[in-house]
Amino acid sequence: MASYLPEEWVDDVKMNGLMSVMKERIVNKADYDRKMRFWTDTIRSSCIGEKNAVFDILTLKKRFRRKDKIPASLNVVLDNLKKQGDVITVGEWRDRHSGWVGWGISKTRGWMFGGSSDYEQLLHLPTVKTLGQELLTIYNDELRSEVDCTGEVVTYKEMFERAKHIISTSETFDIVLDHLADTGEVTVGNTKNGEKVLKFKDHGSEDPVKFTEADASVVDIRKAMTKLDREIQQLEQKVKKYDEQCRSCLRAGDKGRAQNFLRQKKRAEKDVADKDMQYQKLLTMLHQISAAKNNKDVLKAYQSGTAAFKATLARQGLSPDKIHETMDDVVNSIDEYREIEEAISSPFAGASSLNDTELERELDDLLSESKRDDSMHLPEAPTNRFGLFDKEVTPEEDQLEQRLARLRQAV
């Protein structure tokens, strides 16, 4: 039993009912819905399990054959899936993606096998979407972060090899790529040699994915690097071989042959160094290609940021001229305020000068009068011999005067 078959597959009673003819839904709604849901899920799981979204009715009958019975209502289930848009013919898919060539192929197949024969190739779209997501997962996990920084470019052959555990046929792989191209996740291009190349979307950029000559050059550079790497490995094996042979000859005493092997070893080592230098130059070129793309993205970010900043300034009414004008207005306003304060705090000019003059004149008059009064009232002349005014003399003072008189007489 295939791993994708449901658990009910081993239950004879349940499966006999599910394999029987489906009656109209109006007759038995519950039975119809149960069988429709079972076979819809089983078809989906079988497509995932077989790693193939393309099938025909004969293929389904082989997958779901149980002992000597096959599902009696596969046609009814497929018609319902077509109405829901989950199943279309491969011809219809090619009509959408391959132009007139696909139209001619699908029409020829229709004329040969009929419009709804058991051989008509059908496509299960939910499986295509699921495989598309799994393919993107493989790319993101294994290829996006390549050491050469150009992981978005992958050859068709390499991607198909990596996806073989989920997609078994190239037809389904191509259909999945068409689906991813429809969603903008990948585009398909060709190198100058005609090799098919896939370019996945760089989610760090808003630009739509587009295959360019630079992408084709990346593939050519990688192929050259792969070839150089293979040659380097072969030369390293030769170096190892010549070294062993040289040592063997030395142990055997055959110095001539040992010298010959040593010369070949040196030549092989030089070839390894030369090819490794070429490999490093190619790797540097890949890094430069990636850096150029990153610089372009950074420049676009700068441009977008500058435009947004200017738009914000314009929306807010801000500009250098307006700022300078406003600052000048502020300075002028402050100067005017200072002048107003000075004017308010200063005294009235007319009244102040008049009062000062009158006060000075009055002070001068007062000084003049004071001088005249001083000259008119002189002090009285002293009346005693000491030049002092007469006044009452105390006994002590009188005694002192007498002693002074005696001293003068003695002298």
From TrEMBL:
InterPro entries from the UniProt entry: CHMP7_WHD, Snf7_fam
Region spans: Disordered: 369-394
Coiled coil listed as a keyword: yes
GO BP annotation list: vacuolar transport
Keyword field: Coiled coil
Similarity comment: family membership: Belongs to the SNF7 family.
Annotated protein name in UniProt: CHMP7 winged helix domain-containing protein
Organism, as annotated: Caenorhabditis briggsae
Lineage: Eukaryota, Metazoa, Ecdysozoa, Nematoda, Chromadorea
